Amino acid sequence: MAALLRTLIVFPLLLVTVHSQFWLPNPFRGSNDDQDKNPGLKLPGITIPLLGSIGIGGDTDKADQGANPPFETDYKGLWMLLSEDSGANAMHVNLLPNNKIIMFDATAFRMSTLKLPNGECIPYKDDKKREKEDCWSHGVEFDYNTGYKRPLKMVFDPWCSSGGLTADGILISTGGWKDGTRTVRYMDTCEDCDWKEFQYTLADARWYATQITLADGGFFLVGGRKSFSYEYVPPEGKSNAESIKFPFLYQTTDIEENNLYPFVHLSSDGNVFIFANNRSVLLNPKTNKIIKEFPILEGGSRNYPASAMSALLPIKLYVKNAETIAVEVIICGGAKPQAYTLAQNSIFIPALQDCNRLQITKPNAQWKKETMPTPRVMGDMLNLPNGDLLILNGAKQGTSAWYSAEDPNLNPILYSPYKPMNQRFKVLNPTVIPRMYHSAVALLPDGKVLVGGSNPNPGYNFTAKYPTEMRIEKFSPPYLDPALAVHRPIIIEEASETTLTYEKNFMVQFRLGESFVDKRDVKVSMYAPPFTTHGYSMNQRLLFLGKVDVRKVFPTVYQVNVVAPPTREVAPAGYYLIFVVYRGVPSKAISEEKIEENDGKTEKDSGLSNAEKNNNAKAKPKKVPVFCKVNEHYTNL
């Protein structure tokens, strides 16, 4: 085992963890504070110059764009069928640090296509109190390379639940329906791990709630049907006696609700942006006070059942000496008020067609509106490693919920947020599989997107107009155009540094088959894999890192030195995928594994926030399991 001073150990094609510090790190001082003053990289017998000293240079802190524009392509993506049968409907999805994806459904249906192992069955009582047995698996660990699925056992119903990864890569699922509504579940990454469930952990029922990670590593859990409150997920095996009332949720509830699964994003100052229905606020999780209210987003409702899509635009950390690190929210689609009521009478009105951006760190932030190529409700929105966003799934008419939508939106949309207005949207190749209510997606380490789920039926129905969908697809975005393969960086993992510590430099080496490279065209991004359900990817976060320099090491081999995120407000400790991006074309992700050590602080002397007090177990030393190398052959899929 490596010395304790090492915080990360490389294991290919896992994820990367930012080393957590118990005290808040110093404020961001800019991306060049720790840059190496030596103008060249010294190796035995040779000195390798910076790219800038051989005519390949430029100021990396000025424009968002590189020296050259991203490569343009007419390629509109490729759909591939990965698996005919996922075992359980992919209502909830999360990529884990062991290269597997957890997918799970509700237990209420008492049905799937995969039995529990060894003939195991779970006893339960039906609505008439009759004794029954459930022998089906309602969740799987899915290998996205081979399609292999391992059945998982879930006792307390996780239907329409929330979730996220801890700093140690453990998936925590919260809430659900009936016997699962106050449950917290834990899924670790060992080869035979299964769910650990604690039924009465939460103070309030959490059905259609949202869970995000705070700067201190704790989980903030807000909303749910008739739960106008929030709470902090307690340590494993403990329970919350009470929640914190949140009148904002009551105020944003209309006759159709339209504020379930609220959109929640951690800002770069540690405050929490919360959007429900058409209103939004900024909450200080340390004082539990609303410190700002934003303008109303006109045009309709945006949360379940009027389900829009929301994400953070990429957070840019290469702006020199930034006093405020800008954070911008985007919300696209949704439905008109009363759309759900009309849908219950088989009247399906068009979904909303707008996209709206709000820079929440601006003093007088205002929504900026633009128009998508097509209307969309209950779609999904993913950050891509090159800074674009992918919009996919959902429908053009109606709302979320059973039998409540028509006209599947089969075409993904690529959104390039930094192109000029009216040039940002690109319609991509359609799938042949409608992905309606209860679909989900995940960005994979190779840059492809896994797509699964769809079940707008109360149960498993394979003959309905929009049947229960068990097929799993992969979608290759335009940057995977085969014609761009020559421009795709290849990270040399064994030659790249293994340690990420807040505000410190680290190095990544990569191959690139170009005769001339301008260092301004090289970027490094890091991505937090989210928990995705009902069209919302909780905890999703993409950052472009501050770039110190790029050096040419050998012909076609380059080294980029970048700065880790400045604080855990900007990037909470946890597992991230790291990509090198050259003119819009990303590499496959580098991946690392974390060993965290205690810094000696205690709850009494550390000035912990509410979330930290409820999650103080996170501060204890914990060694993450060592994972084996996974050899992946994407060209075979």
From TrEMBL:
Disordered: annotated segments: 594-620
Amino acid composition bias (Basic and acidic residues), ranges on this chain: 594-606
SUPFAM superfamilies from the UniProt entry: E set domains, Galactose oxidase, central domain
Gene3D superfamilies: Galactose oxidase/kelch, beta-propeller, Immunoglobulins
Pfam families per the UniProt record, alphabetical: Glyoxal_oxid_N, GO-like_E_set
Keyword Signal in record: yes
InterPro entries: Gal_Oxase/kelch_b-propeller (IPR011043), Gal_Oxidase_central_sf (IPR037293), Glyoxal_oxidase_N (IPR009880), GO-like_E_set (IPR015202), Ig-like_fold (IPR013783), Ig_E-set (IPR014756)
CDD domains registered for this protein in UniProt: E_set_GO_C
Keywords for this protein: Signal
Low complexity composition bias: residue spans: 610-620
Galactose oxidase-like Early set domain boundaries: 488-589
Annotated signal peptide: 1-20
Domain Glyoxal oxidase N-terminal: from-to ranges: 91-479
Superkingdom of the source species: Eukaryota
Protein name per its UniProtKB record: Galactose oxidase
Lineage: Eukaryota, Viridiplantae, Streptophyta, Embryophyta, Tracheophyta
